């Protein structure tokens, strides 16, 4: 067990994957000499050379398209998209090729790409550097989508993603790159739970908060705050956004009967909509209130100085918990 | 330092200056660039190329007919482009890997696609022409230009894969695409990547003068072959209706790539004699005179004339080759008519390589739903 | 009033827009000389010339990016994306530029683009020609998204979309291009209801089907079939997918208490998820059962010969109506 | 027809052959391409160009300092690139329209951006530098290359907009972008569109040798200026640290475009002396010797030397210009420190031009939520 930041734990996972599997290649903008703008690929070039760790030209469609070709040849490319907002030029290759080639060829061509995305907001960044595009990929059949929330998961899940024979879009919350945690670098993947499972990160009986990424931290703070108020709130970290582990989620909701879903992305047709709809389908008779979503507003990401009004924070989550419990001092309970 | 489009005077349309070894009237002419790569081509090989072109045309005709008869959803005819396809593809070896577009019937055929595989896709039964690895050829790419990046990535894979002797393999990846495709960002990014990594990839642009209803002048004011050098990739502009030129040019390109000199680019200047697809009506946008002009440049006729002149082809052999092509076409028709749509539940197969809780649940639900019908029927 | 196919009614709308407003330009692949692969732009080049009707090079990002520049200059570009599956190369320009420029410039730069998309399946087409990508755009703040289901709406809504100062992604079901209907070509836009409204296309009291596009036709058939079974089913055509007219939807659901949502796109994080979640939020106390979604499966679009197993058809919709009514002979009521 | 990358021998990196009018040591030299466009440039104008460069550098230094002091979220320094920016931008007229990237401080300044507008963006208060139409200049584009297409589209708009006299306007649209951007599909598509429509657009590629940590050799094996002619766009490769060359080259390009001859392309070979942004540490990837070499090619020093030699600049004027730049910097600092973040509810403004039921509801809900806090506080 080692105490590591999330960036270092991801870095260790990449080192390990490159060491264990000669078909793994790491590629992207500035991933080599620089070691990535977040240093997640630090040291890889020195250790594995430029045929395994590839600084590519500045073109995201090119990066993903070339990775598709490498996968055709039997490689397992780990692609870094430098920031969440720069994944869109690669959208066509991801949606039409990466997601579909295995299906189209009836399993002959595997697409074991991992597409790493430094992700989401709260870091005071410039335009296009704080996006939460995960719903686009969750809606895309043929992809797996995961989001990590702590160094230990980040390490294991990145190794699992790279080992996966399916393409995985891997979201890494930038806000947590420097967050520390205990990581077991010796884990044998064979001993780990599969990548698709959610985790109850805090148990409770009055309401369930379902979330993922950096919002897990905020949700835990909200649950702690709610405790002072005499409320016992369960918090679930989805970890896998596609597929969602509805067994874990439904078990919780059947217990609490109340659910708040939170994420940074705009709510409209977001992951929260899917989770709310699926929970309702599965747990209708156990629900005491409609699932409440607390999300980014349906606006383009605002200027950094205003982002705190966009991102769900402790207060907005607590407010939602109040609402789902029909508690009077809910701030925005007003039905508008 | 001024760079001017020195080539601007040459039109992007119609033929213009091209390298050629067989003229439209069937004469073998010299070309200093191509001859070194065609010197050892004997009549037997030329007859082979002729046979492949005849087969391609015959299957193409059959495809159009099957579509007209309602047996295929769509067909993208390659009439007139047989030489560019067959000539280049025949220069490949088995272990090279090809990423074609949707119009490369001749390429698919040379690479060993069966008549059944050729129709399954256009009938809407399958989306690939079988397992790409059995013949090192991907299925037809419909997203214009996307496959060029795949070829570059594959070529990067070749560079990273030593053979048994520890030396890097000298296989080559090939991308086929059209004149319209040359405008797509992906195709340009493919050239950037190929040049940057010196990847062993050959770009074959089949400039058939049209992208559906748009003449190539909409895409380019310069010959498409002039694009590549700007990225650091040498190119050849050939008469795409000359099968020998295609063969020789491809050997030039392949040899460069195999020797580690990096990518190469071929613009094969040809013409789409048919409709864009069976859903298209080219009379809406094309001058019949242009079609007539190109009819005089037919790729098959010229080889036939040349070979007959040399005594390497006679009526008997022509008939035999035609009969062989007919046999193939009949196979294709049979495969088409006897095609059985696969089990509905297979639509859930191979979305993922590993189990997927969400989809597995949907599959079970749909299976139960279909069972319900059967029970109702009982 | 004229009897027209949807393709012709759209064509008439384009003629009208070009005639009425000199800033309107039509652009895309094959929209000029050919008049579009579906003939929706037929005759426009001859009537308005090539400075207004522009055959562009074959590059979707280029088309939309150039349209953005034209909008900067005060034009109102109507862009045709040749088929649904070819919109992805333009995704970056749509998501990062078209959707955001008005916001980013605090209203200084208008983006009155209309992006027309021949859309969805059921026509036996080749790969990438039957996609339903609407959820991607619904999830994108800053865009308006509409889908038409009949010639009359198509005509009015296209004119409204072009007149809109906001960007509109305009989905035209290919399956209905040849469907005929009565169209009022003389309508003054000032006299029409705003573009964002849904419409109750059939009234009923037992259950509500919410849908859009070509599925409206299927839903109406299902409602008719259900009538034989003694059921009174209300059918709502959303028409606008972003924003959704929840007043109309909620009024219906409060009446029926049961709702089936159907669309062709895969269900996961699709428009149906948003509609189901929003209905639940708004109508929880009126719901007698969880909203049921009947959608395309979460698979890449299958080969044409198998598409009928992917697309919700009359039977699957009826089955869902049975389920939402807890009726015994539901075929797939099995909870799996 | 063979096209070979005739330019392959020239490196894409460092200087290589460029057109230049002022040498690094401050000599005015002749250049047959540029001289026709610089003949009428008098010392007064040169002093103006010098002043704009000094201002740019001073504001840039202030920006870096403000970021270090925690007042700005980020800053993208343009140190070393002042000539390429100021020289080209000064050749424009007001009614031309500019689409810059994020590093074009000098361009924004010349185009009239106020110090306050310059800091608002990097402080995270705004995403545009005010209303683009007040100075016909768009805000900084962060999506690499995207703005090149906007410039082409705008130029197509110019072609379609007759002036009062009924003649098409002879305004020009300009796109600024970097060497890294040259790899993006969008930039290549922009060239395709510009050539296809003969649009009055000028592409200015600031080749500062680096895209974050990647040297330009990763993007290209050929000089970037060689790309354009392949698309049918003539180009010039200039010493980007020579403000007069930038000015002259831009006049050449603008004149072409205004006269209806279509697009032109300028590669300004320069160097990013600072970090990519304040978040970057270039010592991780850059050779200090390279930096040293480029320090000797400073764009401001050479003009100063030239003008002093001619007696057009003396210590007094230098001091006056520096003081003026300091005043601007002070204005920027004041604007920064006195910036007030706008009302939270404005985040809901201008998402749409017209009312939007969904968002209007969210706005009301969030307003009620914020009000709740205030009530609680009472
Ligand atoms: C990304 C994308 N955009 C548009 C289309 C529609 N489309 C299919 S073929 C075609 C023309 C292609 O022309 P070209 O590249 O010259 O190839 P050709 O058909 O002539 O062989 C177009 C526009 C597509 N398949 N993919
Ligand atoms: C589409 C996109 N991909 C990646 C980035 C991240 N990024 C920002 S600047 C930069 C390098 C740009 O280099 P260049 O075009 O040479 O411009 P310079 O920074 O040197 O001025 C990169 C990769 C981005 N902003 N947009
Ligand atoms: Mg073509
Ligand atoms: Mg640069």
TrEMBL record, chains A, C:
Domain Transketolase-like pyrimidine-binding residue range list: 4-179
Enzyme Commission number, as recorded: 1.2.4.4
- Which co-factor is required? thiamine diphosphate
Query: Organism's domain of life?
Result: Bacteria
Keyword field: Oxidoreductase
Q: Which is an annotated Pfam family here?
A: Transket_pyr
CDD domains reported in the protein's UniProt record:
TPP_PYR_E1-PDHc-beta_like
Would the keyword Oxidoreductase be found if you checked this record's keyword annotation?
yes
**Name the record gives this protein:** 3-methyl-2-oxobutanoate dehydrogenase (2-methylpropanoyl-transferring)
What is the protein's species of origin? Answer: Microbacterium pullorum
Automatic annotation (TrEMBL), chains B, D:
- The yes or no answer to whether the keyword Repressor is present is no
Cofactor(s) for this UniProt protein: thiamine diphosphate
Keywords of this protein's UniProt record, alphabetized?
Answer: Oxidoreductase, Pyruvate, Thiamine pyrophosphate
Q: Does the keyword Oxidoreductase apply?
A: yes
Which CDD domains does UniProt cross-reference here? TPP_E1_PDC_ADC_BCADC
The Dehydrogenase E1 component domain covers 51-324
Q: What NCBIfam families does its record include?
A: PDH_E1_alph_x
Record's protein name: Pyruvate dehydrogenase (Acetyl-transferring) E1 component subunit alpha
Q: Which organism is it from?
A: Microbacterium pullorum
Gene name? pdhA
């Amino acid at each position: 067990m080692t105490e590591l930041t999330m960036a270092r734990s991801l870095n260790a996972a990449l080192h390990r994957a490159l060491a264990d599997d000669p078909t793994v290649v790491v590629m992207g903008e500035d991933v080599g000499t620089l070691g990535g703008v977040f240093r997640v690929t630090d040291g890889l070039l020195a250790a594995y050379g430029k045929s395994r760790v590839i600084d590519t030209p500045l073109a995201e469609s090119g990066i993903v398209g070339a990775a598709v070709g490498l996968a055709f040849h039997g490689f397992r490319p780990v692609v870094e998209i430098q920031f969440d907002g720069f994944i869109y030029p690669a959208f066509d290759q991801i949606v039409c090729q990466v997601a579909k080639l295995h299906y189209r060829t009836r399993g002959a061509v595997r697409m074991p790409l991992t597409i790493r995305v430094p992700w989401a907001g709260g870091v005071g960044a410039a335009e296009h550097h704080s996006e939460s595009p995960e719903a686009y990929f969750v809606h895309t059949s043929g992809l797996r989508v995961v989001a990590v929330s702590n160094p230990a998961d980040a390490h294991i899940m990145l190794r699992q993603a790279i080992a996966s024979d399916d393409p995985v879009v891997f979201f890494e919350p930038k806000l947590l790159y420097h967050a520390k945690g205990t990581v077991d670098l010796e884990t044998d993947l064979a001993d780990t739970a599969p990548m698709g499972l959610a985790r109850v990160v805090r148990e409770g009986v009055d309401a369930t908060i379902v979330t993922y990424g950096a919002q897990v931290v905020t949700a835990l703070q909200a649950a702690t705050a709610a405790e002072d108020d005499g409320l016992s709130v369960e918090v679930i970290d989805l970890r896998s956004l596609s597929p969602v582990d509805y067994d874990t989620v439904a078990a919780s909701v059947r217990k609490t009967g109340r659910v708040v879903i939170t994420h940074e992305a705009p709510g409209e047709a977001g992951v929260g909509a899917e989770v709310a709809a699926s929970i309702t389908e599965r747990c209708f008779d156990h629900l005491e209130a409609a699932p409440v979503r607390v999300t980014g507003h349906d606006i383009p990401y605002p200027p950094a100085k205003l982002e705190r009004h966009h991102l769900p924070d402790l207060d907005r989550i607590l407010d939602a918990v109040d609402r789902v419990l029909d508690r009077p001092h809910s701030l925005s309970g007003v039905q508008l | 330092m001024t760079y001017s489009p020195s080539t601007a005077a040459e039109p992007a349309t119609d033929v213009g200056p091209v390298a050629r070894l067989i003229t439209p009237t069937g004469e073998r002419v010299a070309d200093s660039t191509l001859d070194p790569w065609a010197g050892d081509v004997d009549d037997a090989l030329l007859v082979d190329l002729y046979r492949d072109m005849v087969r391609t045309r015959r299957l193409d005709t059959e495809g159009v007919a099957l579509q007209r008869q309602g047996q295929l959803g769509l067909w993208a005819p390659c009439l007139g482009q047989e030489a560019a396809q067959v000539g280049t593809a025949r220069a490949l070896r088995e272990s090279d890997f090809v990423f074609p577009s949707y119009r490369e019937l001749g390429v698919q055929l040379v690479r060993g696609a069966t008549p059944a595989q050729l129709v399954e896709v256009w009938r809407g039964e399958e989306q690939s022409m079988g397992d790409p690895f059995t013949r090192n050829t991907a299925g037809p790419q419909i997203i214009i230009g996307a496959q060029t990046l795949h070829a570059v990535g594959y070529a990067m894979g070749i560079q990273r894969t030593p053979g048994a002797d520890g030396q890097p393999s000298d296989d080559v990846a090939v991308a086929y695409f059209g004149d319209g495709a040359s405008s797509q960002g992906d195709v340009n990014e493919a050239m950037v990547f190929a040049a940057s990594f010196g990847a062993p990839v050959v770009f074959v642009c089949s400039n058939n003068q049209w992208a559906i209803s748009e003449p190539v002048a909409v895409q380019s004011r310069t010959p498409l072959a002039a694009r590549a050098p700007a990225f650091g990739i040498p190119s050849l502009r050939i008469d795409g209706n000359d099968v020998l030129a295609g063969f020789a040019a491809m050997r030039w390109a392949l040899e460069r790539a195999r020797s580690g000199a990096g990518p190469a680019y071929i613009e094969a200047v040809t013409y789409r004699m048919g409709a864009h697809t069976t859903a298209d009506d080219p009379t809406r946008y094309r001058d019949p005179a242009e079609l007539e002009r190109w009819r005089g440049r037919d790729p098959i006729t010229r080889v036939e004339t040349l070979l007959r002149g040399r005594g390497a082809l006679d009526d008997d052999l022509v008939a035999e080759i035609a009969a062989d092509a007919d046999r193939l076409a009949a196979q294709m028709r049979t495969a088409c008519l006897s095609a059985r749509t696969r089990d509905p539940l297979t639509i859930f197969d191979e979305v993922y390589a590993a189990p997927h809780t969400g989809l597995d649940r949907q599959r079970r639900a749909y299976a139960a739903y279909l069972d319900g019908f059967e029970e109702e029927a009982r």
